[in-house]
Design brief:
Helices cover about 30% and strands about 20% of the residues. It is an alpha/beta fold. The relative contact order is 0.14. Helix 1 packs across helix 2, helix 6 crosses helix 10 and helix 7 crosses helix 8. The protein has ten helices and 13 strands. The protein is globular. The strands form three sheets. It has a nine-stranded mixed sheet, with helices on both faces. Strands 1-2 form a two-stranded antiparallel sheet.
Amino acid sequence: MTGAGSEGMATHGFPTRAPVELEDRPREQQWLVDTLWGEQAVGIVGGEPKCGKSILAMDLAVAVAAGVPCLRHFTPNRPGPVLMFAAEDAGHLVRKRLHGIARAAGARFETLDIAVIDVPTLRLDHPDDRRRLQQTVQRIVPRLLILDPLVRLHGVDENAVADVAPILGFLRDIQRRFETAVLLVHHARKSGATRPGQALRGSSELHAWGDSNLYLRRRDRQTLMTVEHRAARGLDDIEIELGEDGEEPSFRLRQPPPAGAAPQTETPERRILNALAEANSPLSQRQIRERAATRNKTVGAVLQRLVREGRIRHDAEGRYSLAASQSENAAPAAKASGPHIARFPVPATHD
């Protein structure tokens, strides 16, 4: 007798299960932090240098460790220990940052359930360091493991799949073996990629690896966060800002999305109009392409159409700006473009 659910009768090969026999998790068990990071998900917090990736990763750490909302909005489920390694920050800087975030989040810094790995270097391409990291994870049993940043954790060629894949495979093995989420902080290139994950530095394996990915990017004086999941709908262009609670920076949502609102994807036209609305002076096509994160061919076609429709102006120097009627309606139009973005200035951040 054979069949999908014949696990108990199998004598050779791999065990199998029928679909109905597979684990069924309710919604509250699918998220480590609701709609932001999946339960036991591996993934990347990515972005260009100096856009606040480390601050966002530490905000997630405080949320999971203390059971407080990440970015003062996203609720953690089943809080627990966090294990982290900050390769670029000295201990006193990690302490100061975590203290500032805990204060802003209303968590007790003295009781944060965060274990900081206290070594000068940790190399994921060295067998001995891998073994020690596994032993540390086994001892701490974290709900979340944070490694920041990836570039300081190896000496391999990030562009070579054969070099990157074993590192990612090792971290996936840690996730499965110890049932913990894994977060890598990683740099992105300045790019006009249509999808933020395509701008991550190195092999495309990094983008494909993540179950949950958070991408930060700067647009003029704004910081925007895009949320991407393998098995759930993502969130587009959430604007975050630095709070002014305490001495150290901490992020929060500038304007939380309405409860129950479905994520919406911005069209290239919306992104281009928003880029022009946010600019203080006319923009070249290259500047528009970079700010709208849209392919050059698409930008050119949309600009030509908008000029024909009289919605934007094209001056003698080849630069573009909103027509007068569009400028008057720019702010309402930007707010109406989707429930997950608000357009306000944000001060400069640190990586």
